[in-house]
Each structure stands twice: as structure tokens, then as C-alpha cells.
């Protein structure tokens, strides 16, 4: 029996070995590269139709068991440790540690007491050219959900 983590490793290895880009798979699926990558990394479930499109784009030939895993609602949370050890992920963690209270204060000042949804949510990651070194631009766009009084 394959685990979801093992399937994720298989997908990544196949992608690397065959020089496949996430954006190309996403175009075949008809979703954003961010959403498609999250799904194939095990954080979002896919439909049979979407899995067939991934299969066609990547040429993996998923087994029935793997299709079922890809369709299963996942247990979300992709980090193996409470504090990330991967340098890139740690820097994002550091951004939240340093600026999290600032983001919270500014969101609450603008919107009131509530949260930014990670369900009704989009993300865009892009490259911005800069003569001093290219920059990473991450846009997080989540619906504001006020806390309900009852």
C-alpha cells in the first residue's frame, strides 16, 4: 500500500527526471500553477478528470490506488517539523514570525476582528527582474471572514 507522502515523492521524482514544469501541468489541468502544485504535493484533492489530465501531461500512469489517494481529502500540513528546517520555507516562517503581528494589526485595522481565509484563497508567485538580483513576488489573496457574534 502506497502512502500519500510516497506518492508525492513519486510525482516529484517523475517531474524532475522528465524535466516537467508545474506551470505546464497546471495548464493541462486548467488550474493555476500554485493550486496544481499544492494538489500534487498532497495538500488538495483532485477529481478523476483532473487526475487524468495530470496523467496525460506527466505520463505517470497512476494506479487505481494512486488515483484514490489523489482524490482523498488530505490531512493538510506539509511540514515534517514544527519549525521548518528547509532554508526557503524557514524564511517564509521568519516573515510570519517577524511581520505576523504587523499583518494581523493592519488587517484588523482595515477589516475588523476576523481572519483571512486560506480556503477562499488564491496565491500568485512570480519573478520580478531587478538589476540588483531578481525578486520573488508572492501575492496572497484571501477572503476576509469576520468573527461572528452569537
Automatic annotation (TrEMBL):
Task: Give the EC number(s) under which this enzyme is classified.
Answer: 4.2.1.104
Q: Which UniProt keywords apply?
A: Lyase
Which reaction(s) does its UniProt entry say it catalyses? cyanate + hydrogencarbonate + 3 H(+) = NH4(+) + 2 CO2
Task: Give residue ranges for domain Cyanate lyase C-terminal.
Answer: 78-150
Stored InterPro entries: Cyanase, Cyanate_lyase_C, Cyanate_lyase_C_sf, CYNS_N, Lambda_DNA-bd_dom_sf
Q: Name one GO molecular function term.
A: cyanate hydratase activity
Active site residues of this protein? 91, 94, 117
The question of whether Transport is a record keyword is answered with: no
Q: Which domain of life is it from?
A: Bacteria
Under the heading CDD domains, the entry gives: Cyanase_C (cd00559)
Q: What class of enzyme is it?
A: lyase
User: Which Pfam families does the protein's record reference?
Assistant: Cyanate_lyase (PF02560), CYNS_N (PF21291)
PANTHER family, per database record: CYANATE HYDRATASE (PTHR34186)
Kindly give the NCBIfam families that the UniProt entry links to this protein.
cynS, PRK02866.1
Job of this protein: Catalyzes the reaction of cyanate with bicarbonate to produce ammonia and carbon dioxide.
Query: Per the similarity annotation, which family is this?
Result: Belongs to the cyanase family.
Protein name listed in UniProt: Cyanate hydratase
- Give the gene that encodes this protein: cynS
Amino acid at each position: 500500500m502506497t502512502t500519500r507522502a510516497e506518492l508525492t515523492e513519486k510525482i516529484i521524482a517523475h517531474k524532475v527526471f522528465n524535466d516537467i514544469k508545474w506551470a505546464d501541468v497546471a495548464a493541462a489541468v486548467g488550474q493555476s500553477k500554485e493550486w496544481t502544485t499544492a494538489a500534487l504535493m498532497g495538500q488538495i484533492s483532485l477529481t478523476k478528470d483532473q487526475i487524468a489530465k495530470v496523467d496525460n501531461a506527466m505520463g505517470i500512469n497512476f494506479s487505481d490506488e494512486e488515483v484514490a489517494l489523489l482524490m482523498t481529502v488530505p490531512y493538510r500540513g506539509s511540514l515534517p517539523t514544527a519549525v521548518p528546517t528547509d532554508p526557503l520555507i524557514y524564511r517564509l516562517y521568519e516573515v510570519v514570525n517577524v511581520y505576523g503581528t504587523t499583518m494581523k494589526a493592519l488587517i484588523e485595522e482595515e477589516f475588523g476582528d476576523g481572519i483571512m481565509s486560506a480556503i477562499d484563497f488564491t496565491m500568485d508567485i512570480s519573478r520580478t527582474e531587478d538589476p540588483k538580483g531578481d525578486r520573488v513576488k508572492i501575492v496572497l489573496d484571501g477572503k476576509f471572514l469576520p468573527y461572528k457574534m452569537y
